[in-house]
Amino acid sequence: MRKNIAGCLVVLCMGALVAGGCAKKDLVKPEEKAPSVTAPAPETAKPAQETTTPKAPVTEQTPVREPVVAQEPVREAPKTGTGDLQGQLQKIYFNFDSSDLSEDSRNVLTRNAEYLSKQPSLKIRIEGNCDERGSDDYNMALGERRAKAAKDYLVNLGISSERISILSYGEEKPVDPGHDEAAWAKNRRDEFVVVK
For this UniProt entry, which residues form the secretion signal (predicted)? Predict the structure, then answer.
């Protein structure tokens, strides 16, 4: 009986040592950026492990200013299907930790309002989205503020508020799953969904 207990303890200790020795280590320090790769690695090189940067809570006092993604190009006139109606409404993008509408966003909203004016029976839902930084609760509230800012702008342009609903997804529906500024800029957006 003692041999069985001693044997189990030895196996458990060995398992703990192996598991502790195989812990994932970051290849890049959080404050450094990994160098971008422009050419394929030689066949003899070992594949790099995926690194993750820990999430830090974001507050309204964050002084970082980051670029906004360029707005989508203007599309052709609508066709008949719901998908075609959906394609006429363009996304808008936001700066980091902001629900303020940029000039580009206001121009896109003006075009969206013109389209909605020509489709008086069309109802839409504005979906506010955020990048992955910040807590879940904070990002849900920020996504709602972004959707409300777009709705208020459309209402000021003459679109009935009864035709517009809002919904926040926070960070739950990223367009780009990356963990860098290029991905985050694409994820800070409002989408316009036709609900008829």
Answer: 1-19
